[in-house]
Each structure stands twice: as structure tokens, then as C-alpha cells.
UniProtKB/TrEMBL annotation:
Organism of origin: Stachybotrys chartarum (strain CBS 109288 / IBT 7711) (Toxic black mold)
Keyword set, alphabetical order: Nucleus
Main location: nucleus
Subcellular location as annotated: Nucleus
Name of this protein: Transcription factor domain-containing protein
GO CC annotations on file: nucleus
Family annotation (InterPro entries): Fun_TF
BP GO terms, sorted: positive regulation of transcription by RNA polymerase II
Presence of keyword Nucleus: yes
GO MF, one example: DNA-binding transcription factor activity
Length: 370
């Protein structure tokens, strides 16, 4: 557990709250009692720790299956209160585990995230769970994965056997649809989750813009999101001790850049895209590390100069020191290289959305850019 406490916590992505807050919540859940639900969290923590320390091997898999066994045992009775939140935590840890080993036709992270999201909806209806001290940070964790998964699911359109097998599986497609419909999940509307709500809503409506008849007044919805993103203040108050505060601002800028490209007709006039990207790269250049892959990929698409690409590559190399063996990071690097080659060759006349589709589909494997 010491290894998890010191190292693996870096793999837990959350916006608006520190990873140490999430770490503390997970450790409390794992050691709060001796119930099967607590054991599931502990085994999932050990599985992720083993994966990070020794790579993909039998011990990590053994802990994973032990976590699943404990979850099955706990599910024999009605889940409620703390046990419900413990199941959310175990599902999220196993989703993280699978996201770091995804390859070939394996998309098991989808199942675990779908399970976590379903349980999150249940916990939102459970008064005891909502009053738990760890409820808000846990829901923020689920919400972040939800938002990032929407981005992957929206743009992933490869013509490969792996994709065909996925789209032909009715159970998985139902799960994917549930993930894309998660705007109905009542995540806490607290200040720390505001950027997640706006980013997720923007991706959702951009997704629906392919079939605008499904959403009356689609343009109005997109304009409202753009205005809220512009009005929100995620700027860090001081350069010192502001690492966790810079990430929300970077996601705010990334959301605005994405929206300005994907739906230029609704983007407010007077907002200079160049100024936004310059601010983003200034922030990135100040960071010692930035392992948020979705951020790096989105800003890599804006890196036209060697200087800006060097900023991105430095942060990728720093992330590789701690997670270089994991597949998500490798796919992110491949996407960046692919996009830069495209840009250097002229890029063609394809739209931003179509180019993002191609970019996200380069590996043929459904990635999740945590």
C-alpha cells in the first residue's frame, strides 16, 4: 500500500480536487471495515499497484480477479450507502487498470466505467451515500472519466476488425450509449466540478450536431456553453502552489479551442483563438509535468511551431518516466506524431471534426485519454 500511496496515486486523474484527496478517500474505503465491498476496493488498489510496479503479470491479474470476486459476493445483497460507494470506487480502479493495458480488441475499460456510472446514478438517489464525506470527490472522479470517454467514443471511427467486433456486440453498444447519455446523471453541481460539466456538455452537443434534428435549438445550447466557458474564472490566483488550479484553466481553454473549431458558427465574436492557445502554452511551459493525456493531445493539435511541439514533447517524456509502459500514453504519442505529420504536409480540406475522427482512430483500439 505504501507504493500506491507514493506512486500509483499519480495515475488517478481528477479535476478540481487534488489526487491526494481521492487517495485518502480510497484508502478509507479499503480499510473502513471487513466487508466484501471494502475488500473489493483493497484488491483493486493492489491490482493497480502491482501493475505499476511490475507491469502486466499474473500477480496483478490475480488481484484484479480477487476484486471482482469480492464485488460479486457483496452484490448478493442490496447495495446502499457506503457499500454502494465502495463498489463505485472498485469499478473505477479496475477501469483505470484496464485503460493502462488496453490493446488489440480488448475494451474492458468500457465495462468497468459503465458499471461505475450506473452505480453513480444509484448513489445519487441514496441519501446515505450522498451524505458520505467521500461522495463528492468520488463523483468528480467518475464524472472526469465520463467526460474523457465521451470524447473518445465520439471521435473513434476506425474501419478495423477490432472496431467491427465492438460495434457488432449489442451489449457493448448498449453500454457505450449509456456512457454517452450520462448527462442525465445528477453529478454534484459544486464549483470544483463546473469545468467538467461544461466540457462534458460541449462534447455532448458537438456529438449531437452530426444529427441536429435530435436536439431542438442546438445552436442555442452550444452558444450558452461557449458563453459559460468564457465567463467562468479558472485562473490560478498565484503562480506558487497552483498546480491543481492550472489544470482546470487548461481544460477551460481546451474546451474553448475545441468548440471554436468544431462549431465555429456559434463561437462568440471577439474571442481570439490565438490568445487562448498562447495562454495555454505559457501555462504548459511552466509545469514540471502534465500527465493529462486529453489535454496534451488537444494542445498538440494546436502546436504548429517547433517551440510549441517541444513543450508538448517535454511533458510527454516526463509522463513516460512514471507510466511509459502503459498503452494510453503510447497511443497519445502516436496521435501527436500523426497529427504533426498531417499538419506539415498541409492537412487537406477535411473539417476539424473529421480530422479529429481520423486522429482518434489511428490505432484501431478504443483509447481513453485520461
Amino acid at each position: 500500500m505504501e507504493y500506491f500511496d507514493l506512486v500509483v496515486v499519480r495515475a488517478l486523474r481528477i479535476i478540481g480536487q487534488s489526487a491526494t484527496t481521492l487517495r485518502s478517500a480510497l484508502i478509507r474505503m479499503a480499510f473502513s471495515d471487513s466487508t466484501p465491498s471494502a475488500k473489493a476496493v483493497l484488491r483493486a488498489l493492489l491490482a493497480l499497484s502491482s501493475l505499476h510496479r511490475h507491469g502486466s503479470q499474473k500477480q496483478a491479474e490475480s488481484y484484479k480477479y480477487a476484486a471482482l470476486g469480492a464485488m460479486r459476493e457483496a452484490a448478493r445483497v442490496q447495495l446502499q450507502g457506503k457499500t454502494l460507494l465502495q463498489h463505485v470506487a472498485a469499478s473505477m480502479l479496475l477501469c483505470t487498470f484496464e485503460s493502462e493495458t488496453v490493446r488489440d480488441a480488448s475494451h474492458q475499460w468500457v465495462w468497468y466505467l459503465g458499471s461505475a456510472c450506473s452505480l453513480a446514478r444509484m448513489s445519487a438517489q441514496d441519501p446515505t451515500a450522498r451524505e458520505d464525506d467521500d461522495y463528492t470527490v468520488l463523483m468528480g472522479w467518475v464524472q472526469y472519466y465520463d467526460v474523457v470517454s465521451r470524447f473518445s467514443l465520439y471521435h473513434w471511427k476506425p474501419e478495423t476488425p477490432a472496431a467491427a467486433s465492438l460495434t457488432q456486440d449489442n451489449r457493448i453498444m448498449c453500454m457505450l450509449k449509456n456512457l454517452c447519455d450520462l448527462h442525465r446523471s445528477p453529478y454534484p453541481r459544486v464549483e470544483s466540478h463546473q469545468i467538467l460539466h461544461l466540457l462534458g456538455s460541449g462534447i455532448r452537443y458537438i456529438c449531437m450536431s452530426r444529427e441536429p434534428v435530435l436536439v431542438p435549438n442546438l445552436q442555442v445550447h452550444l452558444q450558452k456553453i461557449a458563453q459559460e466557458l468564457i465567463s467562468a474564472d479558472f485562473r490560478s490566483p498565484s503562480p506558487a502552489n497552483s498546480y491543481d488550479q492550472r489544470i482546470p484553466e487548461l481544460y477551460q481553454i481546451a474546451a474553448l479551442v475545441y468548440l471554436s473549431h468544431a462549431a465555429p458558427d456559434v463561437f462568440p465574436r471577439g474571442i481570439e483563438l490565438h490568445g487562448l492557445t498562447e495562454r495555454a502554452f505559457a501555462l504548459l511551459d511552466e509545469l514540471d509535468s502534465c500527465p493529462w493525456l486529453m489535454l496534451l493531445v488537444l494542445f498538440a493539435c494546436e502546436a504548429r511551431s517547433d517551440e510549441k511541439r517541444a513543450v508538448i514533447l517535454r511533458l510527454v517524456e516526463e509522463a513516460e518516466k512514471y507510466g511509459g509502459r502503459f498503452e494510453g500514453l503510447r497511443y497519445a504519442r502516436e496521435m501527436m506524431r500523426f497529427r504533426w505529420v498531417q499538419d506539415d504536409l498541409g492537412g487537406g480540406n477535411a473539417s476539424y471534426v473529421r480530422r479529429m475522427d481520423v486522429l482518434m482512430s489511428t490505432s484501431g483500439v478504443l483509447p481513453i485519454l485520461l
